[in-house]
Amino acid sequence: MIYLDNGATSYYKPDSVKRAVLWAMENCANPGRGGYEQSNKAAHVVLGCRDRASRLFNCDPEHVVFTSNCTHGLNIAIRSLIKPGAKVLISGFEHNAVLRPLVDIGVKLSIAATKLFNWDDTLSSFEKFLRQGVDAAVFTHVSNVFGYVLPVEEIAELCKYYNVPFVIDAAQSAGSQKISFGDLGADFIAMPGHKGLLGPQGTGLLLCKDMCEPLLFGGTGSMSAETSMPDFLPDRLEAGTLNVPGIAGLSAGLAHLLQVGTDKICSREVRQADICAEGLKELGVQVFDGEHRSGTVSFVSKMDCEELAQLLSDMGIAVRAGLHCAPIAHRSVGTFNSGTVRVSFGLDASPIQSKRLLESLNKIKSKRKIL
Known about the structure:
Strand order of the largest sheet: 2-8-7-6-5-3-4
CATH superfamily of the largest domain: Type I PLP-dependent aspartate aminotransferase-like (Major domain)
Order of helices and strands: EHHEHEHEHEHEHEEHHEEHEEHEH
Largest sheet: 7 strands, mixed
CATH architecture of the largest domain: 3-Layer(aba) Sandwich
Number of helices: 12
Structural class: alpha/beta
Oligomer: single chain
Helix content: 40-55%
């Protein structure tokens, strides 16, 4: 199978990740709940993963909080920072993991930056709304639909200039784009463990500055005599038993990234995305292409996108089609009614993947006389 749906989850995992999960299941108990060997081994795994995350993302280990996924982290961040009736600024490329919590809270939304691959428009649009006054900003680093890499460093500077707290959704960037929590100055950055960080599903990280409110309340292995949650990180946000096997796998994924380098991974992914985009244009489909793109390419053809994705699946090519849980992004670009076919490269990006995809699409075009 040619797997090109890394925007949903990375399918290829280094062998070290798989071994780490199994080792934890065979050797680890509950961290922080005992002084015996198996509990201590679990605590060592947890601390090791925090340390690797802190090195990769330039933050203190205690400000690394484990979550079950990026959505979990975004909900913590949004509900910690934003109250009902607040004025909140988002980009025109947000995932439902950002949009739905904000709608549920009941905020006044402003939407900036609806032009693809246009940093000038993105920055001028954000600056306009920030100047008018908002209470908080929440924005994605990379569009999960179109692969547009937003100028997060510049947006962060604007937010700091206007004294607006902000949250970054790094679901599509963690592991392949540079992220420095210390330099960006974000209040929160949320990310999944199972995508670019190469960990198992059911894992995630939330990088926190200071202010935070827990979603879950319960045991933490610390301050057990108190009836309220601890007032320090990471314990305040980690009620209940941690997913130690998942964290062990995530730690191994982080180790792989630290060794290989995210810049090399990004270069490999973008190179194949460029080849793919050029080949798609030659086939005559509409490709959403431009500067500042990650390893993701979206396109539409005359064929229904779901039908086309199924034909590719039957030929051993895994892509994703539809709205990708990001209807606001499709409304911004004008593809809400059709959706798109999304191709997203990952750690194992290679020329054979692009070649097989384009060959398969060409066969579909020749057979169906439409694409």
